[in-house]
Amino acid sequence: MKTIVIACGVGIATSTVLVAKMEKLLIEYQLKANILQCALDNLEHYIDQADLIITTMPLKKRYSKPIVNGIPLLTGMETERTIKEILKYLNAKAERK
After folding, report:
1. Does the pLDDT at position 92 exceed 80?
2. Distance in angstroms (rounded) separating the CA atoms of residues 29 and 20
3. Residues sharing a CB contact under 8 Å with residue 34, sequence separation 6 or more, in sequence order
4. What is the H or E stretch that residue 20 is in?
5. 77: exposed, middle or buried (C-beta count within 10 Å: 0-12, 13-18, 19+)?
6. Cα(69)–Cα(65) distance, rounded to whole angstroms?
7. Most buried among 48, 55, 65, 95, by the most CB within 10 A?
8. 38: annotated active-site residue
9. Which is nearest to 53 in space by CA: 41, 78, 28, 35?
10. Which of 4, 6, 7, 8 is catalytic?
11. Rounded to two decimals, what is the model's pTM?
């Protein structure tokens, strides 16, 4: 099962909203994934577990894991493009069930 790490500034408010949106997305596309949330400063501790990183802030470091900007999921702008990108990294087709 894939693991999605969601990181925001403090790891509480914004990441919690993104976790809820990702849980809904996983249900909508009948996918299973572990979701971990953290503060951006703690991302280093979760990198080995991550198959995908979704963040709302620029990263200070480069990682070998795919990174998706989560801001469109919060603003509603370019949401479909972001969802397709996430699904691509989860190896899923962009078809709702």
Report:
1. no
2. 14
3. 1, 2, 3, 4, 49
4. helix 13-28
5. exposed
6. 13
7. 55
8. no
9. 35
10. 8
11. 0.89
Phi-psi region of 11 (alpha: psi -120 to 50; beta: other; left: phi over 0): left
Tokens of 6: 């969601």
Query: What is the three-class DSSP state of 42?
Result: helix
Question: Could you tell me the two tokens for 95?
Answer: 């078809």
pLDDT-derived band at 29 (thresholds 50, 70, 90) equals very high
| 52 bridge partner residues | 4
Contact call for residues 9 and 57 (beta carbons, < 8 A): yes
- The answer to whether 49 and 36 are in contact (CB under 8 A) is yes
Enter the tokens of residue 45. 């501790």
